[in-house]
Structures are given as structure tokens and as C-alpha cells.
């Protein structure tokens, strides 16, 4: 039945191969530990490792099996292939909401979840534990002598006025491949028309399209890109070569994505999963010590300009195949101007 | 007096009926409030679902013979605006599924309009579904585009729980209020009955006058029956007293003649056994005549206490007169009557009655005294009362325990061989009470009876 109702636009993303593809895999803790917690996540191992290690130091009898997959592969693993994972961590809020909405997530309630702010929990199924704004990441070298853009309009002007600098050196998500990219794009478009103007301008500059934030940052660091648009600021902040670029939260509005975690119904150890979930939340709220969240950027930003994406069925709208098809068509016509 | 047999209680019955009534109405109130509120809550949920479905339908347009739908963001986000709800939708063109959740239950017939609602279970939860449709001209001809939007019932159930507890509170509150009212009503309904009971039982023993206090109309027949009954009783009582008085009067005169004749006969008779028989005859005649006299006295007392005259009576004078009047009798019985003390004492009352009472008391004292003994009479007055005390050296009262001696025709256990009717103390008691006083009977420690009449002053 699940495969029958699975009628998402993301089907066209995952071409023809049927088995879900993991990008990376690691096991933390004692291999012979009594219990193994199986996590599927869109976050890189390096990104999430501190959290797992911190958890394991308190729970030596647990091993964590950590699988990294793209958000659409994560969706496929849980939705289509019914694989068993104890926790699903994803930055694709829409897909996480879809999993919960369609009855593939377990409810979880504890003293920890009771204290969450409203925006951080949906239906006792989906829990947000990071706030990650989408930012401009600008190569310091490429922008020598240029004013730094503070908002989208300024970025448009700079791009228009300096096509010789930026041709082939603007990077952004390929929203056909990246769930996060699609989410940012749709929320951008919902918030302002400027998004489409910017996309068209980027389209004229022969942009590079990426699947992942990390690749974009790497290319900014290497100098291949002058600017990357809609990059997860949290990744950029953690980059080792952060002096090579500047992260700018657009002052008109900055989309804030929430990285969320849920316990799939396929979990074989829901209690262990709930324990880990509560641990993650305790590191995060209120003002926890999560190594993931030491973002000074959010604190400094104008709070009114932060557009936190709201968890809820509204996110399902852009997963509708009509909507998805028409949005991607529009995006393609703006960005692919060959 | 035997207690009346009772069956149930008006007040209890009224109370139970009112409480049952309150419980039924309270329950009804609970159910009605709940069902109305449920309906309203359901309607408001339906309205939101319908608005969502219609907004999707409104976003549909035909381009080049094909339907395209630009799902509005608000269509689904509005379903989640207050409480976290899971939301589902399905878009179908005729029977062809286009987008959304293919297995979402379809509506039955579109009855009375193009929007219908249904409740169903979907993906393990109860949902409410609104479906709406519109006809479009596509390249395959006219087709119905049907939009179904569904929502889980978290918020709805929360509302219903609240409604349920509110309506429960309303029901209970109504019941409690009604119960209080019921108690007040029951009490106030039976109050006239209690008032009537009190007014009847407060009456003196011989008060047979009709009940005059106003009563509720429902009780009027009862009261008028009661009044009627009492007036018949009064009539029959006074008739029998009249009859007794008349009979006594008629018997007394012939008895006097018979006694005179018997005394004359006694003088003539010489045989001792015949003399003895005549003496016994005279004694019997005395007893009968005395009884007749006291019956007359009693009838007189009854009559006069009902119509008590209100003159000043000097009790000291009255006592002196009474002692003098009984002088012949005391001499005959060789009993000395000593007036020990005579304080001047005046009260308002009926001198004939009071004298009759004193006569009876002195007569009793003389009767029960042995020869050569004495009877003492005193009239004392202090700040609070006037006391008339008459004491003798006779055998005293045998049984002081009860008020039995004051009943009509009751005689003490030691009265045998003494002429008497048993009416004497009854008369005294009635007279004293009619004057607001009390009669106290006691025995002296050295032997002999002591009777005290006390009349409070003021």
C-alpha cells in the first residue's frame, strides 16, 4: 500500500535504480555492545560524530550504526523499501513531515519533548534539533574590491554588473537532486518574488549545480566558485578553511531550515531510539551544549528576517507531483538558459 | 393516644419527584449541550476542510485541454494552524487518480450539492474527509475534477473533550441548583401543614373553637372538615354535660326527700338490724347526693371556665368564709380547722369557681381526717405568687406518681369507706388552671396530705 500511495515528485529524482544507495557508513562504539542503534541520516559523519561520541560516553553498552544517505534515498529506504532504522535524521523537513504524516513515524513524548517550543515539534513525531539558515558563501578572493552583498537585491545587482567575474563561478543546489535545495528554493519562492529574478540572473551566468552543501563550500575554498547561494551556514561555519570565505545571512530574509529527527515505525528498538532522541534534544534545548549548534550567526542576525520553515502539512504541498513538476519546470527554465 | 399510621411523606415524595426531575433535566441538558456543541465543532471542522478542498479546486485550470493544478500552500497549511494535524488529499479526474493519496476513501454520492463530508479511518487514524468536485471541459470531454481533503481529529477531539467536560459541568451544576431549589420548595410546600399542626396541638385540652388562621386553598377542605368535626364534638360534649347536669339536678331533689323520709323512719324503727339497714340506706343516699352535687359543680365549673368572669377576688376573705361555711361539718366530724395564716391576697378571677375549689379541698381534708385531728389552712403572699395551702393529718395521697388523681372519677386507693365521687380534685385542677395557677399535691413527712394552690403574681 505504501508504494501505491507513494506518488511523489521525488520519484523522478531517483532515476531507475531500485535499491537505496548509502553514501557513507560508520559504526561507533564497541562492536560487541549489547544494543545497536541504527541511524539513517543526511548529515555527514564528521558533522554528527561529536554528538554520537558524547552519547556513547554516557552509554558504553550501545553501539551506533550510522548510515549517511541523501534525503531522497533516506525517504526511499523508509518509504519504499521498508528498511528498519531506529532513527531518521534529515534536513529535508518536507520529507520528514511526509513520513510522519503518512504514518511512518512513531509518536514520542517525554519530559524532554514537553519543553520544546511549538515550532520544534510536530504531532509528537517530528522533532527539530538544529536551526540552520541558508546563506551566501562568498569567496574573499573573488570579491576583492567588490562590495559584499547584504541581501538578494544587492546580490542581483553585483551579479549583473560583473558578469565577467561570475560567469561559470556561481554555485547553487540542483533542486532536482537535493531535497534540501528543493526545500530552500520552494520556501524562497514562497517568501518573495526576488527569488525568481535572482534565479534568472544566476541562469544567465552559466551556474554550477550541486547536490550537496559540502561540495559547494569546497569549491568556494578552492576558488572555483566566487559565490554559492543557499548554502547551509552551519556547514560553512565548521569548515576548516573558513578564512577563505565570508558567510552572509541575507538581511531581507533568511530561510532557516530545521534539521529534524523522527523514530520510524520500522524501528526495532524504539525505546533506545527515544533515549537517543531525548539526548539529542537535551543537547539542543534550551541553549544546550550541542556541538552542532554553536552558531553565533543566528544570534547576531535580525530575528525578524529569519524565516523558520514551519513543520506541518503545508510542506506536503511542494511534494505534490503537479506542484513539483511545475516548480521544477519553472526553475529549469530560469536556470538552464542554453 | 396511639400514633397515626403513616404511609410515605408528602415532603419526601415531593423532594424525590423534584430530584428525579432535576436529574432527568440535568442529563438532558448535558446531552443536548454536548450534541449541539459537537455539531458546531464538527461543522467548523467541515468548513475548514471544505475551504481547503475548494481552494485546491479553484487552483485548477485547463490549459491545452489538460488539467493543471497549482496546489495552494495554504490549502494544507490551514489544516494545521491550531493543532498539529496529519492531512491528506486526493485529486481525481472522474475515476482517474491524479495526485495525492490514492487510497483516501472516496465519497459516496454527492447529495444536495457539490461538497460532501464523511468520517473514515485512514492510515491507522480516524479522519474527517471533505470532497468537492467541479465539471471541466477537457480534451476527453466533460469531466469531474474531484478534490478530497482529509484531516486527523486531534484538535477536534480536544475540543470535544473540553465540550464534554463543560456540558457535564453544566448538567451537574443544574442538578445541584435544582436539588437545592427542590429542598426549599418541598419545605415551603409543607410549611402550612406544619403551621396548622402546630396551631392545633398548641391548643388547650378543651379548646374546640374553629381554626381561624388562613390556610392555602388546597388545605381549606381539610380545615373546614376539621372545624366541622370540632363543632360537632363541642356540641355533643356540651349536650352530654347539659344532660349530666340536668340528670344530677333531677336526681338530687328526690334524693333529699328520700333521705328525710329515711331519717324519720330511722327514728321509728327499733329493731337493731332494721336500724342498721336504714343507716346504710342513708349512707348510700348521701353518697349519691354528693356525687350528684359534684357533677353539678363540675358542669358549672366547665361552663364558667369557658366564660371566666374577671372580678377582684380576695383569697383571704374567701378562705375565711369557706372555713366558716364548713364549720358544721367539721364540728360533726370533730376535726378542728385551723387558719394558720391569712395574708391579704387579691387576684382577678371568678369567686364562685375559686370558692368551689376551696370547698372541695376542705371537704376532702375533713373527709380523710380522723377524729380529734386538725386541718390547717393558710394563705400566703410573697413577691412572686400567692399560695393557698391546706394540709391534714390523714393518710395522705397514696399514689402521687401520676396525674391520675386529677382525672375524673379517679379515686385514691385508700378512698374505700369514704363518701366521694372522684370529681373533687378534677374540679380544683380545672379551676386553678383557668386562673393560670398550679395545683401541687404532696405528702407531709409526718403523715397527712398537703395541697398547695399557687397563683403567680403579675
TrEMBL record, chain A:
Keyword terms, alphabetized: Signal
Signal peptide: 1-19
Presence of the UniProt keyword Ligase in the record: no
Keyword Aminoacyl-tRNA synthetase on entry: no
GO cellular component term, pick one: outer membrane-bounded periplasmic space
Source organism, top-level taxon: Bacteria
UniProt protein name: Periplasmic iron-binding protein
Species name: Actibacterium pelagium
Record lineage: Bacteria, Pseudomonadati, Pseudomonadota, Alphaproteobacteria, Rhodobacterales
UniProtKB/TrEMBL annotation, chain B:
Keyword match Nucleotide-binding: no
Domain HAMP, first and last residues per copy: 187-238
Subcellular location: Membrane
Catalytic reaction annotation: ATP + protein L-histidine = ADP + protein N-phospho-L-histidine
Annotated CDD domains: HATPase, HisKA
SMART domains: HAMP, HATPase_c, HisKA
A GO term from the CC aspect: plasma membrane
Regions that span the bilayer: 14-33, 166-186
The entry's keywords: Kinase, Membrane, Phosphoprotein, Transferase, Transmembrane, Transmembrane helix, Two-component regulatory system
GO terms of molecular function: phosphorelay sensor kinase activity
Major localisation: membrane
Residue span, Histidine kinase domain: 246-458
E.C. designation(s): 2.7.13.3
Protein name per Swiss-Prot or TrEMBL: histidine kinase
Lineage, top ranks: Bacteria, Pseudomonadati, Pseudomonadota, Alphaproteobacteria, Rhodobacterales
Gene coding for it: tctE
